[in-house]
Design a protein that fits this description.
single chain, alpha+beta, Jelly Rolls, Arc Repressor Mutant, subunit A, 5-stranded antiparallel beta sheet
Length: 273
């Protein structure tokens, strides 16, 4: 190898190393469209449901504590984190939606839950240092990142009562979500599962100020089936039957609920949560 070649390789090595780090970062994060500094919580439309906003505003007589370091926009199909990744932050959905799933031994996917604006991803890793599930954006999804180090620093500055209230609220929300999932998958017939799923989505949209009667399903039929323990063909068949019976109007991913009462009757119970 000539001296000229050695010199050229030495000069280009830092550039190649930088490119390699960039490729590795892109592979780990997924199709990230934009990374920005987080805007103040007071300007966020999801602040009423966001735990970061509550942490910032808990102690009114003290300097506000910022726990959000940056924000990302994730394209559809991009991973926020993957099963086994080291826990470095929790993630708050500002807009869009995501699914949380884990991979079964046979390689198939089990969808645990669907997340909407104001929900928090990554709580499964608190205290165990690694994520036990994966989170994936279902559409263009804007997410605020709350590093665990910043969260710990904020906890030290906030009053114990303020932090405990916020943290317990988060845990309570996750427990309710888990209880709902168990309720869904233990229902015996597919119609009851699908009716419960649609009514719960309707309730969540209403809570966020959107229409509870007409909304888009950001998830695929197969993902709904995985979540409910149904085959994708069964999901499609039940939606078609609901439409034929005048309960719904379905056009691709757009769903319009025409008869909430009839759907609730199919669930076998009053959906109060």
């Amino acid at each position: 190898m000539t001296t000229t070649t050695l010199k050229r390789n030495t000069e280009t090595a830092p550039l190649e190393a930088s490119r390699a780090r960039s490729r590795a970062s892109s592979s780990r994060v997924g199709l990230v469209e934009r990374r920005t500094l987080a805007k103040p919580c007071c300007d966020c439309s999801s602040r009423e449901r966001c735990p970061a906003s509550r942490l910032t505003l808990t102690d009114n007589n003290k300097q506000p504590v910022s726990v959000i370091s940056r924000s990302h926009t994730f394209a559809p199909g991009a991973h926020v984190f993957r099963e086994g990744d080291k826990a470095e932050a929790v993630y708050i959905l500002k807009s869009g939606s995501a699914k949380v799933y884990f991979t079964l031994e046979d390689g198939s996917e089990q969808v645990v839950a669907f997340y909407m604006p104001g929900d928090v991803l990554g709580l499964d890793a608190l205290g165990v240092e690694r994520h036990s599930s994966s989170a994936l954006a279902l559409e263009n999804t804007f997410i605020c990142v709350m590093p665990l180090t910043a969260l710990e620093a904020a906890c030290a500055k906030l009053s114990a009562s303020g932090w405990h209230h916020c943290f317990y609220s988060l845990l309570s929300r996750e427990l309710i979500r888990d209880h709902r999932t168990i309720e869904l998958i233990t229902k015996k017939d597919a119609e009851a599962k699908m009716a419960s799923f649609l009514l719960h989505l309707s309730k969540r949209f209403r809570e966020r100020g959107y229409s509870g009667s007409s909304f888009n399903l950001s998830m695929k039929r197969s993902e709904i089936g995985s979540h409910l323990g149904l085959a994708v063909e069964t999901v499609s068949r039940v939606l078609t039957r609901f439409q034929a019976d005048g309960l719904l109007q379905v056009e691709r991913r757009r769903v319009q609920i025409l008869d909430h009462v009839a759907l609730e009757a199919l669930t076998g119970c009053h959906l109060s949560h």
